[in-house]
Specification:
Elements: H1 2-9, H2 15-22, H3 33-39, E1 45-50, H4 54-58, H5 61-71, E2 76-81, E3 94-97, E4 109-112, H6 132-141, H7 158-165, E5 173-177, E6 179-180, H8 189-201, E7 205-208, E8 218-219, E9 228-229, H9 236-243, E10 248-251, H10 254-260, E11 266-269, E12 282-283, E13 287-288, E14 292-294, H11 300-303, H12 321-326, H13 331-341
Parallel strand pairs: 1-2, 1-4, 2-3, 5-7, 5-10, 7-9, 10-11, 11-14
Antiparallel strand pairs: 6-8, 12-13
Length: 346
């Protein structure tokens, strides 16, 4: 029996024999990770591998925080990530900055905040069809967090808060991130320019944020005339600090969307790829969708449902221009909302 299990775990083709011996479905092969960790005396020495894009890493913060403070307070928990500043407020044993060093996995019981579709984990839960914070807690701890603990917490330094506070007009403003990435979630410069001009006509200042990431991710080429253009002038944590202090924020990109969810700004977003419920957050102590509004009229999640019966990979990045335009609100609708929210207290 042990031989058959070992061959399955290492890729051996003994599936029928295993089913015959144990009389259980093949997918119920138990995990040996805990037993292996215990054998090496590592069962209380965790390494959480937090990876993915900026937004993916941010959405792991509640699960990591809850693990440190509530679930495993008597364990050693270390972290490996590209963005260590997102976790500077947590009592972690060690944080590995992936850009500088990588942890020796043999010294830890390691787990990931996201699993790819090439892993067994993907057979049980899909990242693209799960609320982002929930996915990370399920991937790490096999459970959802208490609602109040699902709120994202990010902690810029006092210096970062002071620097960005000086950039924000005192009479209210609207921050925007006109993101450029996949064609299925990139609005045209003309559409964004119309939104901006309508906001400015009401006498409300517009702050433009974003960064050229050196690949396909950047911001569309809007006309920054009469705006406060902060693109490529803020670090990631300075962007967080800014978004925690502005009254209203508009975006079509998930990374700054998740940053803003850590604060109290009104967030107007355009969810044209993922189902909007999967990008909506618990905020303000556990209120679902508090100060958040999706303005998209549809999305790729309607055209290409990610079914478990699909035999081929489903791509969500390409869409006809006319289809994308049909999902967009009239610029006046989103601009009117943003002008109203720009006057709110935070």
């Amino acid at each position: 029996r042990g031989e058959v299990v070992a061959q399955i775990v290492t890729g051996g083709n003994k599936l029928q024999a295993f089913n015959t011996v144990l009389e259980v479905p093949a997918m119920e092969v138990p995990s040996f990770r805990f037993q292996l960790a215990k054998q090496e005396n590592l069962e209380r020495n965790f390494l959480i591998e937090v990876w993915g894009g900026i937004g993916d890493v941010i959405c792991a913060e509640p699960a990591v925080r809850w693990g440190c403070k509530n679930y495993f307070p008597d364990h050693k928990i270390s972290l490996e990530t590209w963005y260590p500043d997102f976790f500077n407020h947590l009592p972690l044993t060690k944080v590995y900055d992936t850009a500088l060093e990588q942890a020796d996995k043999s010294k830890y019981w390691s787990m990931k905040s996201i699993y790819t579709n090439e892993t067994l984990h993907w057979e049980f839960i899909g990242y693209a069809v799960t609320q982002r914070v929930d996915y990370c807690s399920l991937a790490l701890w096999r459970r959802q967090l208490p609602v109040a603990d699902r709120c994202i917490e990010l902690h810029p330094t006092p210096e970062q808060m002071e620097k960005t506070r000086a950039l924000i007009p005192k009479k209210g403003c609207v921050a925007i991130h006109p993101g450029q990435s996949w064609p299925s979630r990139t609005m045209s410069p003309e559409w964004w320019n119309k939104v901006v001009s309508l906001i400015r006509e009401k006498g409300v200042e517009v702050l433009v944020i974003g960064k050229n990431m050196g690949d396909y991710r950047s911001t569309v080429a809007i006309d920054p005339t009469d705006c406060i253009d902060l693109r490529n002038h803020l670090s990631v944590m300075e962007s967080v600090a800014l978004l925690q202090q502005v009254p209203c924020f508009l975006t079509n990109d998930s990374s700054p969307h998740h940053m803003a969810a850590s604060g109290k700004a009104w967030i107007g977003f355009l969810s044209t790829v993922n189902h909007p419920d999967h990008l909506t957050h618990w905020r303000n102590g556990g209120e679902w969708g508090w100060r958040m509004k999706n303005f998209a009229k549809g999305g790729m999640w309607q055209l290409k449902p990610l079914l478990i019966t699909e035999e081929k990979a489903v791509t969500m990045n390409e869409v006809e221009k006319t289809q994308l335009e049909s999902w967009l609100p009239e610029p006046m609708e989103i601009a009117t909302w943003a002008v109203e929210k720009s006057k709110c207290e935070i």
